[in-house]
Amino acid sequence: MKLIYGVKDKPKFKDVLVFAFQQLLAIMAATIAVPAIVGNGMTASAALFGAGIGTIVYQLFTRFRSPVFLGSSFAFLGSMFAAFGSAASMAVGYLGLIIGAAFAGLVYVVIAIIVKGVGVKWISKLMPAVVIGPTVAIIGLSLAGNAVGDMMKGDVGPIVDGVLQPVASPFIALACALVTLFVVILCSTYGKKKLRLIPFIIGILAGYAIALVLTLIGNKAGVDALKIIDFTPFKNLVADGVSLKTFLTVPEFSFLKAWKGFSAVTPAYIGTIAVGYIPVAFVVFAEHIADHKNLSSIIEQDLLTDPGLSRTLLGDGIGSFVGAIFGGCPNTTYGESIGCVAITRNASVISITGAAILALLFAFIAPFVAFLDSIPSCVMGGVCMTLYGFIAVSGLKMLQPVDLNENRNLFVASVILIAGVGGLALSFPLKDGQAITITSIACALILGIITNIILSRKKKDEGAEDEPQQVIK
After folding, report:
1. How many C-beta neighbours within 10 Å does residue 279 have?
2. Of 39, 154, 234, 370, which one has the fewest beta carbons inside 10 Å?
3. What are the backbone dihedrals phi and psi of residue 159, each rounded to the nearest 5 degrees, phi first?
């Protein structure tokens, strides 16, 4: 892929601000969704700060050579629920989030040490293109349902059993999503250089503007079907009158809530946290490899050798832990960020670092956090359709050099795609009704690796039979 800005390129400062803001918008929906799902007082602003500081740590470890943003990981949702479900108090629960992130980070550190000692060639043998390509495609395809579901709903309506019941017409929501989608597509395809670099900003603003007009009409005319945007985040800013807190606010960092929980921590609780986090860390490790292989194909530079898998693992693991100290959520490399790099053709690490700095700053700016919270699901769904689609297509592109006329390759790719699309996942129950879940992506990858190993052995046997036999005289 021909990039407009390479990894080491340095755009003008004003351009960096715009590119960084776009990266932030690309990862925003998922990053703030995790604390919203977990609840228990977790906030979007703290998660945003945690993602920003985690990304900076990652960039430091990778020596600013890997253009990807770290955001809240969905893989650890079950682990986070277990931390609160097994806690004696809310403070212990927050301390559990930090302890769990430390366990997960330790797994990455151990693997990084092993990789540093033995190299990365075993990764290529264990996960060649026929394995990693379909796995990357599954990462995008597994998120397709989320994007399509979001495109059909607004954010206004009653909450029943913790689930929003939208009142907006799904056709109205879809119209807003399609405006967003096609503005992104047209800007990225036909726009001049500047427009091609910021299609998501323009698309989100266009979709938001349409949704805003429809919502205002719906409120004025009393037509629920037109109500798309929830203005509650803005109302909360002035609920107690206009004050300094209306404009600036300090995020509710996890460590501020966790320090009171040390006295109540028990060995049994630490064991529960370890069981909840460590296995998931190995699952996320597989996704780490897939993400970096995908990004490597986009920027045409093997990140597993430069800056090196040991560095990306250390950056991801320690960055995740540092992010959890502030936001409670373990972080992971984001496919949305990689998709943004692919669509905009802007791989400048400065833009990624700028997005991380903006995340730190904006976490304190109350109106901005409110604006992010108010972006309707349908608008983000329109954006995510392009992001997730690019991830899926990037994985399929990795299969181009693979000979699918060979049954060996065909079976490996088929097993991964069907297992992933079919949603093959395994859950191991814990106490308090929680469970450790091996995601469909991880299951598909593991099954693909096993299939590839079995068929590779067969290929070697066939190769040995084809060798000319030595004649003994």
Report:
1. 17
2. 39
3. -105, 120
Exposed/middle/buried for residue 417 (C-beta within 10 Å: 0-12, 13-18, 19+): buried
Q: What is the pLDDT of residue 239?
A: 80
Q: At what angle do helices 377-397 and 267-299 cross, to 10 degrees?
A: 70
Residue 471 has pLDDT above 50, yes or no: no
Scan for tokens 């194909």, then name that residue: 297
End-to-end, the C-alpha distance of the chain in Å comes to 57
Exposed, middle or buried by CB within 10 Å (0-12, 13-18, 19+), for 118? exposed
Q: How far is CA 12 from each of CA 161, 352, 360, rounded to the nearest angstrom?
A: 49, 14, 21
Helix (H) or strand (E) holding 438: strand 435-438
User: H or E stretch including 472?
Assistant: none
Tell me how far apart the alpha carbons of residues 144 and 122 are, in angstroms, rounded to a whole number: 32
CA distances from 133 to 55, 158, 282, 414 (A): 25, 42, 19, 11
pLDDT of residue 466 exceeding 60: no
Q: Are 75 and 287 in contact (CB under 8 A)?
A: yes
What angle do helix axes 144-151 and 170-190 make, rounded to 10 degrees? Answer: 120
The tokens for 245 are 């807190």
CA pair distance 193, 11, nearest whole angstrom: 13
How confident is the model at residue 357, as a pLDDT? 96
CA–CA distance, 100 with 330 (Å, rounded to integer): 9
DSSP secondary structure string, 334-381?
-HHHHHHHHHHTB--HHHHHHHHHHHHHHTTBHHHHHHHHHS-HHHHH
Side chain identity at 171, as an amino acid letter? Answer: F
Distance CA 321, CA 311 (A): 15
Alpha-carbon distances of 294 from 129, 291, 342, 352, rounded to whole Å: 10, 5, 10, 17
| Per-residue model confidence (pLDDT) at position 470 | 44
pLDDT digits (tens, 9 = 90+) for 226-253: 999 999 888 888 887 888 778 888 888 9
Listed in sequence order, the residues at least 6 apart from 11 whose beta carbon sits closer than 8 Å to its beta carbon are 5, 19, 346, 348, 350, 351
Share of the chain residues as helix, strand and coil, in percent rounded to the nearest 5: 70, 5, 25
The helix or strand, by DSSP H or E, that contains position 98, with its residue range, turns out to be helix 90-118
Task: Report how far residue 244's alpha carbon sits from residue 238's, in angstroms, rounded to the nearest whole number.
Answer: 10
pLDDT exceeds cutoff 90 at 323 = yes
Output the pTM of the full model.
0.78
Determine contact, residues 50/71, Cβ cutoff 8 Å.
no
